Amino acid sequence: MAETGSRLLVADDNKVNRLLLSRSLELQGHRVACAENGRIALEMLRRESFDLLLLDMEMPEMTGFEVLEQLVADLQLRDLPVIVTSSLEGVAHVARCIELGADDYLPKPVNAVLLKARINSSLEKKRLRDQQKELVRRFATSEVADDLQRSGFSLGGKRVVGTVMFCDIRGFTSITEQQTPEETIELLNTFYTLMFDAITGCGGVVNQMVGDGLMSIFGAPLPLADPRGSAVRAAREMIELIELLNVEREAGGKAALRIGIGIATGDMIAGYTGTQSRATYTCIGDAVNLAARLEAHTKQAGRPILIDGDTAAGLGGAWVLEPLGSVQLKGKAAAVEVFAVAT
Amino acid sequence: MADTVIDAATFAELQDTAGGDFVGELVGTFLEEAPQMLAELRTAMAEASADRFRRAAHSLKSNSNTFGALRLGEMARVLELGGLVTDAAPLDALQAEYERVAAALQELSRG
Which residue in chain A has the smallest CA separation from B59? Predict the structure, then answer.
C-alpha cells in the first residue's frame, strides 16, 4: 500500500479526540504528530514536513477556519491536503471549510472506515499533484514553475522591460564531426550545466535550449533590480567557465570550445505561447530578435560578448565597453549601435 | 435509547476499531478531562463568556458521542447551540448525567 508511512498532523484541542484520531491513524500505518490548537499546528507545519492535516474547527487561540485561511495564503502549504474533522453543526460550516480549501469534511465521532477511505484518497491526490509539480520542474525552470503555481496557466503575457541573451557554441558542427555522438551529448550536458549555473546564479531564466544554443531572459517572470547588469555579469561568468573547461579539454587533447553571446534590452511581452495543451514560456519583442542577431554577429566582430545600445546605456560604467559603432545587422531595417564587453 | 446511559453498539464499535485496552485508557482520559469541561461551563456562566461556554459544551458533546453517551451528548449539544445560561439548573442536570456516564464507563471498561 503506497500510503503506508505517511506523516500526518492532528490538530484538535480535545485530548480524547487527539488520542482517538492518532490511534486510528497509527492502526492504519501512518506516523502521527499532534497539535493542541491552530497556532501550534501552523508552527509545526512550517517547521516540519507533513503529508496531510486533520483539522478540528473549534479550537482556542486559532480556530480551524483561521488555519485554513493561512494555509491558502502560504505558497509552501497551500497544496497540503486538509481533512476537517468536526462536530460543528450546519451545512454552512461544511461549505465554508470546503470553500477555504479543505479536501473533505468528516463529522465527529469520526467513523474509522470512512476516515481511512478519505485519507487514502487525499494522499493519492497529493501524490499525483506532487508528481505533476515534479514534472513541471523538470521541464521548466523553477521560476516558471512557481509562476505557474501562483497564477495558474494562461496563454498570453504581460509587458515588461527585460534583457534577453542568446548564446551558442562556435563551430559546433566541426566539433561533432571529430567525436562520437556519446562524447557530443556529454559535452552538451557539461556546457548546459555550466551555462545554467552562471545564468540562474545571476537571476536569469533559461527558457529555450536548441541544439548547441540557448536563450535566456533577465527580468521576467520575476522582476530583477538590474536586468542589464545581471545579464552582462552572467555573460562574463559564462566565458570564464568555458575557459576553465577548455583547460581540461586541451589537457585531454580535445579542441577548445568557443561561444558567442548576444544581449539586448527592451520592451517585450513575456508569457506563454503555444496551445492550451503544449506551451512554452518565452518573450516576444524586438530585443529578442536583436539579441539573436548580435549573437550571430560575434563571429564577424571577433568578440565573444556583444550588447546593444539600451543595455550599454543602462550599465552605468560598471563594465569596460568597446564601442563598435553603428552596425547593419541582418534582418534589421536600421543600423544599431553595438558594444563589445571586454573579457 | 434514551433510557440507556451508554449506547452499547457505539461503545462496542469503538472497542472494535481502537482496541479494548486502548479504549480503557481513553475512558481514563475522558474521566480526567470531563470534570474540567463541566467546571469550565460553570466558570463561563459566572463570567458570562459565551465563547468559552460554547467551546466547553462542544467538547463535552463531541466526547460523549464518541463513547456512546448519547443523552449526555444531547444535553451538551442543547447547551452548545442554546448559548449561555443564567441559571445553574441545566448544569446541575448535566453534572448528574455525567456521574451516571462515568460510573457506566468505568463498569464497561473493566468488563
Answer: A14
Residue B1 is assigned to a structural domain of this protein: no
pLDDT one-digit tens code per residue, B75-86? 999 999 999 999
What pLDDT digit, counting tens, does each position of A158-217 carry? 788 899 999 999 888 888 888 888 888 888 888 998 999 899 889 898 888 877 889 999
- Chain A interface, mutation test: which of B6, B7, B17, most A Cβ atoms within 10 Å? B17
Tell me the CATH number at B105: 1.20.120
Nearest-angstrom CA–CA distance, B108 and B111: 5
When divided into structural domains, chain A yields a total of 2
Residue B31, chain A, CB below 8 Å: the answer is: no
| Nearest chain A residue (CA) to B17 | A112
Counting one residue from chain A and one from chain B, the pairs whose CB atoms sit within 8 A come to 52
Cα(A334)–Cα(A171) distance, rounded to whole angstroms? 29
B55 interaction partners in chain A (CB closer than 8 Å): 58, 60
The reply to whether residue A15 touches residue B55, judged by beta carbons under 8 angstroms, is no
Over residues B16-40, the mean pLDDT reads: 95
Are residues A209 and A75 located together in one domain of the fold?
no
Minimal Cβ distance to B26: which of A16, A27, A60: A16
pTM for this model (two decimals): 0.59
Listed as ranges, residues in chain A with pLDDT below 70 are 1-4, 135-144, 147-156, 273-279
Task: Identify whether B45 is part of a domain.
Answer: yes
